[in-house]
Amino acid sequence: LCAAVLLKDMKLLDVKLGQLPSWLAVRDFTPGGIVGAVRRGYDRYYNKYINVKKGGLGGISMVLAGYVVISYIWSYSHLKHERHRKYH
Amino acid sequence: MNLSFFDQFTSPCLLGIPLILLSMLFPALLLPTSNNRWITNRLLTLQLWLFNLITKQLMLPLNNKGHKWAMILTSLMLLLLTINLLGLLPYTFTPTTQLSMNMALAFPLWLATLLTGLRNQPSMSLGHLLPEGTPTPLIPALILIETTSLFIRPLALGVRLTANLTAGHLLIQLISTATFTLLPIMPAVSILTTSILLLLTILEVAVAIIQAYVFVLLLSLYLQENI
To answer: For burial by CB atoms within 10 Å, which of B16, B100, B180, B213 has the most?
Structure first.
């Protein structure tokens, strides 16, 4: 018999679709809660890809690639004027 | 095509929310904090080696009182290094191209060195305004010149960093625009321009590292005179 996990502590990927609204309602959206969530995400990534015995280039490259993608999204409103079109 | 070549230097904004703070905080994600292991992971080992190298190099010419500045100078060096290098990735924003940020870094630190000198050893600091061995008739003129050069230091520090990085980014954009425009017209010239672009990118990486180093080195020199 596996112990039932509280809705509050379940990870997002384990939440069933029907439970999603109630899961969102239980989450901690205070500033302290958000900082905690960012810290947990950072620690998960760090311990999986960087804090390993033979970490390679992949760990940091994924972060940089994500940063490039996010910067593209942030600057899209400027970039859309620079496309190769005859009429802008 | 481009509205203006200076569009890349506008502060990023998303739905009216300024994002420059996120661009400035992002380097912190790339620099892990040290844990108490004897053998750390590869990134942390590299980072600790780099920190030791930078700190030793900066603190060599300073006396013991100057060693109190080790943390701020090393962290400033790391900040500028990571911000400059991250700015070379495509589509990213470089906060150090903004004169406001560089002046905000240069001016208080220069003023701190000046006030430290004037407070602890005022005659020594003022003595720096006159180099040794100047002929007597030249003394008034030289003091004026040295005072001007003293007051221009923070301006020079900030503008040097801004101008170098802005010029580099602009050149990259200009030459890449030239490459794209020439590709359908004269492919051979376009290939030549691509090779220029490759060399320029290597230069920009070097400039990013060197400018960070020069900024902090000059600050440590000003500190040396005054502490």
So the answer is: B213
